[in-house]
C-alpha cells in the first residue's frame, strides 16, 4: 500500500529539519570519507562543465572560420609518396 500524502509530508518535514540542523551546526559531513566523496563529486562536475565550455567555445569560434574550411580541403587531397613496396 502506498503511503498517504500526510505521511510523505511528515517525512519530508523531518528530512528538511535534519538538513537544517546540520547546516546550523556547520557539520555537514559525518566523516572524512563523506568530505572526500563530496570533493571528488564536485571535481567531476567541474571537469564536465569545463569540457562542455571548451566544446561550446570550439563550436562558436572555429566552425565558421575560413581556416577550418582550408584544413578540411587539405585533408581531402593526399600528400606524400606512395609506398610501392606494399603492392603485390
Please characterize this protein's 3D structure.
With 88 residues, the protein is mainly alpha-helical. The chain has helices at residues 5-25, 32-62, 66-76. The chain is 72% helix and 0% strand. The N and C termini lie far apart (76 Å). The longest helix is centred in the middle third of the chain and has 31 residues, at 32-62. It is elongated.
Q: What distance lies between the first and last C-alpha atoms, to the nearest angstrom?
A: 76 Å
**Residue fraction in strands:** under 5%
Q: What gross morphology would you assign?
A: elongated
N-to-C order of helices and strands? HHH
Whole-number radius of gyration? 29 Å
Instruction: Give the helix tally.
Output: 3
Q: Quote the average pLDDT.
A: 81
- Total beta strands: 0
- Helix amount: over 70%
Biggest beta sheet summary = none
Structural class: mainly alpha
Contiguous runs where pLDDT drops below 50 for at least 5 residues: none
Short description:
The chain has helices at 5-25, 32-62, 66-76. The chain is mostly helical and 88 residues long.
Output the keywords.
single chain, 88 residues, mainly alpha, 3 helices
Which secondary structure elements does this structure contain, and how are they paired or packed?
Blueprint (H helix, E strand, L loop, with lengths): L4 H21 L6 H31 L3 H11 L12
